[in-house]
Amino acid sequence: MKNGPIGQYLLEKGLISEQQLNEILEIKKNDKNKLFGEIVVEKGFVSEIEFAKCLADRLNVPFMDLAETELNPEVVSKIPEAVAKKYNLIAVSLLGKRLTVATNDPVNFYVFEDIRVITGCSPVPVMATKGAITKAIGKMYSEGTMSTVVDDVNKELTDGENGDGEIDFSAERIENAPIVKLATQIVENSFRMDATDIHIEPFKSYTRIRVRVNGDLVQLMEVSSAVHNSLVTRYKIISGMNIAEKRIPQDGRFSQDVDGVHLDVRVSNLPVVHGEKVVIRILATGDVGVRKITDLGMNDYNYKMFSSMLKVPQGVLLVTGPTGSGKTTTLYAALGELAQPHVNVITVEDPVEKAIEGINQCQVNAKAGMTFAAALRSILRQDPDIVMIGEMRDQETSEIAIRAAITGHMVLSTLHTNDAASTITRLVDMGVAPYMVATSLIGVVAQRLVKKLCPECKKQRLSTKEENELMGIDLNVPVPIYDACGCKECSNTGYRGRTAIHEILLATPEMSSIIARGAKSDEIAELARSQGTKLLRDNVSELVQNGVSSIEELVRVSYAV
Questions:
Q1: Among 67, 310, 383, 533, which is most buried by a count of CB atoms within 10 Å?
Q2: 379, 403 in Cβ contact below 8 A?
Q3: Pairing state of beta strands 360-363 and 345-349?
Q4: What pLDDT does 493 receive?
């Protein structure tokens, strides 16, 4: 069926069922402008990459993963930015007059005829995903423009200063003002670097802008102090803060579209010695797919335990860890597994980080009196089957959640604790009776994010006795482990990407009985380990021995005195 319809091809490959194919064709019949591939990916039947690979195979066109391909700016510039964006394609390589072009529509003759005329080269199509092309276009055509924008800002400040070093924000010139372009560009470039936060920090003679990538702060750029006030004012305007108030901290939020992804951006402003420090948190919203529980980085043993917890019809399932440890991602993955057409799922979050189809999501608004506790009381009158609470912050919220679980609901939530065992004692310390915790608890997932070594530059060596002790293995048998070095591929950090480690505690009958009699965290941890729980240290030790991470990461995420 290689020459037949793509739907039939996917069916033969076993990627979709007959029922799913009929569902897609029905949607396609009602909306003729929608492409078959868009519907398949939107419905979550196959991933964008899987569909692109299948289409490439069917059309006999090579598939290219742009995330793993180094692009040459000179080759990219052969196709003007406007044309690249119009047709959603990008030049990849040039050999003589043969120009390799990545596209998600390799059979569109008219497009390639245009490219032939514009570039004077013979275009050779390769298949890539739409998302990867959009991201590559954004990244490659924006490189070099940041310095131009900063120069424009400095020029404007020099030419048109109004006495206090701030730019005039009159309505007619806002959109094209260099400071507006700079503010937009900072968010765009940070998102393309997979940054989670942007720090704009004022010092006496300059302002430093850093971004958090893979948990570490990396310098993005430095700008003159004269630019700082205008930049902060711009962020305060778009995030709804009071620009006249410079003495107290403020919070706000705005949204921005980057490379076809809708970003929800939270802004926090803090007065410091040399001005106002701004920290921007970037959240990709509903445009980014929710991960499946198979994509959480769990080993087989932990995955089986987590899956069994999700089968329990009622009770409390807690995900714990410090800020930025991926708790919300795990909760969303669990919700994606639980949200079936026949159940009512309601969440209360602060804020709603990803919009999930088929789930009722409410947002906390403390000023209006919509607290976690107040929202939770109302939710329980909405006939829910599954309730997700963004965070158990106080005794009131915890007690309502526990009572909801006892009365037959499935409740998912997060807590800030160091490990799975201390989560139970934390609930008791918050004022929840031990017998209620024991009755309602399904289990606890404690997690951390661990940086992965860059495969291009990591260096192998044998472990020392001290390192073997840290990994909990035989002291006298050195094992091969790897150190982080640093190269161009990983921006000289030695690490590329992160994975999660998990510690899963199941509320077995024996565990419930010791919780009910008020056992301390040490006793709970000891019993959990005897019942097969792999501690965070065990998980990260496994990653170090497999060459995925380093001893430095083991110490950072799991060291205890």
A1: 533
A2: no
A3: parallel
A4: 83
Burial of 494 (0-12, 13-18, 19+ CB in 10 A): buried
Structure tokens that stand for 386 in this block: 């599954």
E strand or H helix at 184: helix 178-192
Cα–Cα distance measured from residue 353 to residue 363, given in angstroms and rounded to the nearest whole number: 10
Residue 293 DSSP one-character state: G
Please state, in angstroms and rounded to a whole number, the distance separating the CA atoms of residues 357 and 339: 9
Q: pLDDT category, 486, cuts 50, 70, 90?
A: confident
The structure tokens listed for 339 are 């949200």
CA distance 448 to 330: 11
pLDDT over 70 at 168, yes or no: no
Q: Rounded to whole angstroms, how far apart are CA atoms 202 and 207?
A: 4
E strand or H helix that includes residue 37: helix 36-42
Average pLDDT over residues 278-286: 80
For the segment 288-335, what is each residue's pLDDT rounded down to a tens digit?
456 778 778 888 889 999 999 999 989 999 999 988 888 888 998 898
Place of tokens 């700008």: 223
Question: Over the stretch 147-160, which tens digit does the pLDDT of each residue have?
Answer: 677 777 777 777 66
Give the pair of three-digit tokens for residue 199. 């720090």
Q: In what order do the strands lie in the sheet with 122-127?
A: 89-95, 98-103, 122-127
The per-residue b/e assignment along 128-157, b for 16 or more CB within 10 angstroms, e otherwise, is bbbbbbbbbbbbbbbeeebeebbeebeebb
What is the model's pLDDT at position 163?
Answer: 47
DSSP-derived letter for residue 381 is: T
**DSSP β-bridge partners for residue 269:** 250, 278
Which amino acid does the sequence have at 73? Answer: P
Place of tokens 């109004």: 162
Task: With a cut of 50, say whether residue 171 has pLDDT above it.
Answer: no
Structure token digits, residue 130: 């739409």
Task: Return the closest-CA partner of residue 429 out of 497, 495, 520, 343.
Answer: 520
Amino acid in position 279? V
Distance of alpha carbon 96 from alpha carbon 93, whole angstroms:
10
